[in-house]
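Retro notes, item 3 of 5
We never archived the inputs for the D-malate complex last cycle. Fixing that now. Sequence and ligand:
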Amino acid sequence: MKINHNYQKLEQSYLFSNIAHKVSAFTAAHPEKEVIRLGIGDVTLPLCDAVIKAMQQAVSEMGHKETFRGYGPEQGYDFLKEAIAGYYGEQGISLDLHEIFISDGAKSDVGNILDLFDTDNTVLVPDPVYPVYVDTNIMAGRTVTYLNATAQNGFLPLPDPAQKADIIYLCSPNNPTGAVYTREQLKQWVDYALVQKALILFDAAYEAFIKDPSLPRSILSIEGARKCAIEFCSFSKTAGFTGTRCGYTVVPQELTFEGASLNAMWLRRQTTKFNGVSYIVQKGAAAVFTPEGQKQVKANIDYYRQNAAVLADTLREKNIWFTGGENSPYLWMQCPNQMDSWAFFDYLLTEVGIVGTPGSGFGKNGEGFFRLTAFNDHENTKKAAERLRACL
Ligand code: MLT
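Structure as it came back at the time:
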């Protein structure tokens, strides 16, 4: 038996597991210290009432022979796909139900989609970046080419026509930097991909945090994108589903490469390797798009936005450079006094009991930067802001 040696090229552990171990070791050694977690982007507000009611109803249906459901369609129930299509319709984007695939979250789909592509593709990934894009390509034996995202380009790199690419990863609002591409900037990427005959893998997991109506929430709102982009989205950050698990991927019918339809290939992949998301969870997800559901999830997003504003005000007051925090739950700050990212992580944890995410964990250009999330509760976020004010 031969193992996949590509795994030996990976960092020893996944960034957020590594941080969780460090924090556990610290809390075990200092049980008296109260630690405030602004690290992994995990939500703290409970599921909204509309979702809970829909899931309770679905649980009860599962308990009666007449309404019990066994295997569902691998690509998701029509009631949820219709609700998602309606949500896109409000943005002027028309989707066929066959283009929407329901899954257990964007992370799985972002990794699994690579089944469709040959190893011999040039992969362009911004640096810093959500580590899943890089690690899943390394696992598959692909070499990754990096695109420099820096303070100079506002952490929003644009295409270089001289650079070759087959697969391009974009995430906007960005994880980790919170920066958001404008329509014009995304159009540049779409035009570039069309010329290169490349595919954009667009991660829209944080789209619900965009409050500026001029900013695009979906790459599919950009002309030409249906011929070059797959979009991944999730209920995790939109509706607090980090533990409930549900997401969706949009694979436009126009996506054909070497004469093959990516939509048909993804359907083939999913029907073979995936048995779908539970009926109960999909019922909960569909409730997000009802008028009550929308009102309730938007109130939760506003709650996190207020946290982001508290953290942003603190950084401004301390004259610390940062991106994000406005149309995103993440703030990406420069470490003070030229500290490196892990030194600042240790400093914040040991001195003031705040957990954040070291920028270098997202790539070499993240060195000297640090990510804070707005997903904790108001009380802890205010407390964290006070502690930051005192130590920065
Ligand atoms: C993050 O903190 O970057 C995210 O929560 C990770 C994820 O969505 O998988």
